[in-house]
What we know:
The protein is α+β, with helices and mostly antiparallel strands. It contains ten helices and 15 strands. The protein folds into four domains: 91 residues; 102 residues; 74 residues; 141 residues, Heat Shock Protein 90 (2-Layer Sandwich).
Amino acid sequence: xxxxxxxxxLDSLQARLIAAAAVWTILGxxxxxxxxxxxxxxxxxxxxxxxxxxxxxxxxxxxEPGPAGQVSLRGRFTxxxxxxxxxxxxxxxxxxxxxxxxxxxxxxxxxxxxxxxxTVTRGGVEWSHGAGPEDQHLRIVxxxxxxxxxxxxxxxxxTNYRFLVAGDSTQVETEVARFNATLLWSxxxxxxxxxxxxxxxxxxxxxxxxxxRIALARIRDGRARKLDGDFPAExxxxxxxxxxxxxxxxxxxxxxxxxxxxxxxxxxxxxSVITSEASAQPGPLADMVIKQVGTMRRQVDHYLARARAxxxxxxxxxxxxxxxxxxxxxxxxxxxxxxxxxxxxxxxPADLCFRGERQxxxxxxxxxxxxxxxxxxxxxxxxxxxxxxxxxxxxxxDDGPGLSIEEISRVGERGERLDESVPGTGLGLAIxxxxxxxxxxxxxxxxSSLGGFEARLTLPAII
Length: 463
């Protein structure tokens, strides 16, 4: 029985599709994550800069010049953020060109001033970075504003001030870090979900190929004759071609068997004529002809049996139930040896099946059982069972004289044919051995529990 593994093999088409899709998915998520993080950072920084610009405009609008050119807010610019010490939000108003005059600062700065490190002018204002209290990293926006001096006789006298608003940029980094953390675990969950979806999609998409493989295995094991089932439009032509190939293979084997049978018939007829003519004219020459014709007939039977079996081995979908074959052979042999009163019994499970042609099984089992009947005294026992793996075993034993240990060794170990080494055994065992080997099986000989000869035939089975 075939088992479908959940984890695909690394060299399989399924693994390649899943790996390729997973790589592109992860790559897309990583790139998308960086893009989203960058967009969010830009949005947060833009919003932060907009708040700084808004506070700067509000502070400038709230400033009121004095008669000597000084600047006073007079409580018109109040915001709790600028009142809490070291809150991260600060403002500062410093006169330009008057290093000895201290700047006005927000309460949040307490006794510190803002130190600007770099400046970029954009949109009529200056954007800078600097250091604040407790080494805070500040984002700074500033503008130069000129206020007139009313106490001087010249109407053009004025004083320049630099209005500056700063905010702790750590807030931006905190918001970005919080967003990145959320984005990370969200994309991890999304990536796992997408890879799982890809895995399911590929397995479902390739399911027809697995069904096709299982169907082919059923044909190879003899459990089916052709590919059955509905296949997708992409697989259906392949299934049709495979069915046509299987049918063609069966036709070729059938034609080969027909030709072999015709050849056997064609050869046996002239051999019978030669034998009859030789028998009609007794003498040394006639005896030699009859002997050689007998040898030729046995050789023809031997090699024709091998040819038939070789054709059957290459055919797909062969399946033969063992029990009916053994039952038929027992009935035939009981009729043939009815005068001797032999007790021929067989024991075989009903579900035991041979992966091969019925004709070949009949020939192998028939040769073994016929040989046992010839030498048995009163009893022949035949049993069949499934062994380890995809194999079956047919055991034929009798209560006859059997073979000596030396004869069994010569036949089993050195492969000598019994018709040439042990008189009276014929060519049947050699045929059985050759046909069994063609199917990947074997034949072993020994002593039977009944006291006589035993033949143990191992053949491929259908599970």
